[in-house]
Amino acid sequence: MKTPLFFILSSGLLTGTLLASCTRPPSASNSTSAPAAATAPPAFSAIQEAELRKDLFELASDSLRGRRAGTADELRAAVWVAERARQIGLEPAGDDGTYFQFYPLRRLTVAASTSIRINGRALALWQDAWVTAPIKAQLDAPVTWLNSLADTARTNLRGKVVAMNLVAPRPLPAPKMSLWGFRYILAALNQQTAVLRRQGVAGMLLVADDTAEPQLGFVGHRYKDGVYQLPAMATAPPTVPVLLLRQAAGAALRSGNAQLKADLAANTFIYPSVNVIARAPGTDAQLRQENVLFSGHHDHDGAGDPVAGDSIWNGADDNATVSVAMLAIGRAWKQRPGQRSALFVWHGAEERGLLGSRWYAEHPTVAKSSIVAVLNADMIGRNAPDSAALLGSTGPHRNSTALVDMALQANRQFTKFTIDTSWDDPKHPEGWYFRSDHVPYVRAGIPALFFTTLLHPDYHTPKDEASRIDITKLARMTRWMYATGWAVSNTPQRVTVDPGARLER
After folding, report:
1. Where is the signal peptide (predicted)?
2. pTM beyond cutoff 0.85
3. CA pseudo-torsion sign 65, 451, 505, 496
4. For the chain, give me the number of helices (H) and strands (E)?
């Protein structure tokens, strides 16, 4: 699988035929009006609901199959974004005079050749049994059944394969927390396996409890997908295999004389992912060398096992809303440029661990010192019409008071949302601040904010469809983000990081 993907890129299908059309914007005479004075209001008229709707329904359509990182679908989405940026008249600001910055993703998966047998009966991988992390291991041993974790204190388990029921985590995930079932299983596995690893076991079979059993299909999709990393992030593989079993598959283990035979195999692939980068120059001879960076991500979760008959995670709110909002901001910036330049970065592989923004923060295509501020957004088209959140606006997440003041003033003056600050609290159970693309820039010492309208029940499900987006609210959020960037662009003194600003983790 490694060779064909890079062959596609080098053969010209993307870097030739498609990318060639994304290297040069139309003539400026067709796309730019006379620049306005710094005191002029932003060009809100360029942000049109009809254009947002059209772009949203295209980017979040089934034809792009959820834009999963490391797949041709993500690359096709990137080409779509780049072509839209070119049509607007934004300049390419990626590598080699293009709109693109490619980078490698390292993916580890459980190999399809993996086999698992209990008492000679084969268990179907991803149906009866889930390998929770890619690992190479062979097990042919009797299984010791544990009735509870208390049994670990009464029995020498070193070198043994053990099995037991999954134990509910303590504490439970907060009520109504997003992806509650996934978090339940993950927390239970983390707590239980930590105890068993300390006993020196050779393998673990954990049988789903009544809470976990209905969630196995959804959670199992995550395990089947494997692990994505940047090459520099590579960590040591696990040494002890952990298998999660359906209740029916685990029934034979309780007899006390079960035998496990497992041949676990793993694959490693290198895939390309891509950031899309464009720029609208500012009007001031000196300040145009500095950049206000508008940030979002164009990828989502792709296609998986059907949920209610729908197998495509379209990611309309997460994060097609922001991708099309950035295009609208680009139109506005071309109509009325600010004094500083606007830099647009549509990150790839955000859903795999903020990988595109981590890469760009470490390998920017402009001088890192030229990035004045990062205005990032994630999910800006759902929930109550007048509510929104600005993460990074309160301590310890606030790293630039001046930037926060500009965003709040833009909201008071233009968009007038009621701002929910509760999700910025470091004790909020969702930890939402740390789950979007502004974080690598904050860690790099750049002023940054996170605009969002927060989570909803369709988050990371196939129900996150374009038809469910509040287009009027999306346009309003776009104007807020744009007005903030306009203020940053036209304020003579650049915003700075507050002395002593430091994240809690």
Report:
1. 1-20
2. yes
3. positive
4. 11, 20
